[in-house]
């Protein structure tokens, strides 16, 4: 939520001159993005977003992220599209940082999503899964099953600072997930972080998806499980089955789930809750008190996880009827 | 440099609906403005800036600032122009704060101004002084002569933390200024803070002036003195007479100075240096270490002040020849 790297007027003007975008008209740092520095840049060709990648982003992954956004945009998914410079490159440097210029996407995220929003997000996620087919680069999911235990071990000795029984809960759940994690589900490119702040709407119309910086290759149904966690719980941590139904039906309108994907959903949802529980717990224990961004409460994911532990079938998330 | 107040999507959509600006398309908090929260807002009618006035701005002064921007825009000064809502009001409220929507001004501030930039700023300042004629509201200069001693007294006992001889310098200079301050100069609306970050350019063309939140009624020539301090010193604190000449000639192309204004310039420049020395010294001593905005070094104004103390006539700022 901050401008970590200041860009000067002369260096930005010469940066913009390396693109076919006309003259630089204005630029303003925006208070968005936890990891990176972002500017709104106006040129005579329109508005763009300039992103400077800060240290927390692996530079080696940038061709994957930028290539994916370009691939998705070419395949009907509305998202910020990287602009190529005069040398045909979509990745450049400014102010000592890797940087990319992408098209400006109108829309804004919805603080109180309704079932109608969830239905639109379900459709968009399925379109993303289909649109990602044929993308040539791969990136493994660093925050998938294999990454959870090492991440937990980085704060295991301090888990009790969050809640007395948290260590036992995580250890038992990790053991269960490692024993039972579904294998061989249809895989492909997943967003892996499709939370409400990464989906833009204009009124009730979904205008596009943003923030592909967790995207990777993994089971497509795991992405659905992330979204069920992200979109379908109320502030009191109760699961809203109307939203779950809307989301899953929206998804299946575009890409029907197989019987195995349906069966796996409660387990995948447990795994997705574990993934956000672990990163939130780590951030909770490791964010300096005076940081610009306050860490989010990990216990919200303990409550989601407990809900999923009691779920026996995808019907409890709102999807009835036979798999197609 | 921060978003102090978060605005939600639903409240902003209903706020925008009270204007004749079409639909809300997007909004992003921007990292600009030390005192206020600013958002870039796109509607179907174009881009706008939404400003939420935080506690440091006197709400009673807002009609002056907004009325002035409107008056200036009507009189040929390019600046952000307040938009009136369906009830004809240019001041509203959102998220518990007074708020105004103004037009988006293209351009960006120049980090390394040249003499050509200074000439353009001189012209623009004179145009602002002429454009302000006939504006019906008044606001006295809270940071003018009468305000300096009370401000100094708020940190006098700690001035030695900045430099051992600072208290003596300020006390002697304040006594001198109070004794000798020029009276009866032509007055009117002044910007009072026309620093490089408040003047936008596109290339070499000045595209407009921003940030009228120190504007007030005072001697017009005092505003010139502020600008000589703000625009014509190099990083090593040497005065660049080429820039001074360009600025003053640019100003006089639009509004020639009277003989009395010319004579008063060295004194006014001392006063302007004192004003920024005092506010910077106060901020230096009173900004928490973990604040988002780092305080600027007050000693830069001690060095400017010492320069002005040695100036005997406006010729040393670059203006030769007879007054018109």
UniProtKB/TrEMBL annotation, chains A, B:
One of its GO terms (biological process) is threonine biosynthetic process. Residues 27-257 form the Aminoglycoside phosphotransferase domain. Keywords: Amino-acid biosynthesis, ATP-binding, Kinase, Nucleotide-binding, Threonine biosynthesis, Transferase. It comes from the Bacteria. Pathway: Amino-acid biosynthesis; L-threonine biosynthesis; L-threonine from L-aspartate: step 4/5. Its EC number is 2.7.1.39. GO terms for molecular function: ATP binding; homoserine kinase activity. Pfam families: APH (PF01636). It is an enzyme of class 2 (transferase). It catalyses: L-homoserine + ATP = O-phospho-L-homoserine + ADP + H(+). Belongs to the pseudomonas-type ThrB family. This is Homoserine kinase.
């Amino acid at each position: 939520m901050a401008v970590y790297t200041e860009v000067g007027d002369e260096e930005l003007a010469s940066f913009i001159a390396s693109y076919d975008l006309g003259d630089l008209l204005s630029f303003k740092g925006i208070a968005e993005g936890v990891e990176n520095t972002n500017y709104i840049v106006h040129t005579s060709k329109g508005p763009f977003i300039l992103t400077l990648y800060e240290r927390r982003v692996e530079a080696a992954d940038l061709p994957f992220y930028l290539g994916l956004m370009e691939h998705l945009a070419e395949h009907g998914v509305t998202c910020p599209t990287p602009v190529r410079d005069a040398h045909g490159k979509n990745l450049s440097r400014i102010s000592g940082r890797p940087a990319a210029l992408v098209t400006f996407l109108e829309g804004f995220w919805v603080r109180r999503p309704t079932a109608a929003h969830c239905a639109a997000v379900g459709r968009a996620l399925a379109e993303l899964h289909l649109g990602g087919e044929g993308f040539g680069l791969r990136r493994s999911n660093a925050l998938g099953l294999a990454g959870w235990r090492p991440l937990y071990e980085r704060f295991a000795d301090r888990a009790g600072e969050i809640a007395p029984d948290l260590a036992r809960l995580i250890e038992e759940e990790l053991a269960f997930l490692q024993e039972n994690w579904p294998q061989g589900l249809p895989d492909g490119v997943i967003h892996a972080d499709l939370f409400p702040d990464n989906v833009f709407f204009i009124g009730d119309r979904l205008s596009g998806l943003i923030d592909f910086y967790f995207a990777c290759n993994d089971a497509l149904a795991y992405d659905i499980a992330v979204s069920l966690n992200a979109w379908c719980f109320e502030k009191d941590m109760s699961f809203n089955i109307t939203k779950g139904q809307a989301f899953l039906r929206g998804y299946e309108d575009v890409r029907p789930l197989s019987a195995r994907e349906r069966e796996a959903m409660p387990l995948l949802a447990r795994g997705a809750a574990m993934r956000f529980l672990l990163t939130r717990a780590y951030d909770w224990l490791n964010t300096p008190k005076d940081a610009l961004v306050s860490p989010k409460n990990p216990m919200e994911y303990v409550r989601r996880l407990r809900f999923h532990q009691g779920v026996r079938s995808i019907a409890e998330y709102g999807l009835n009827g036979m798999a197609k």
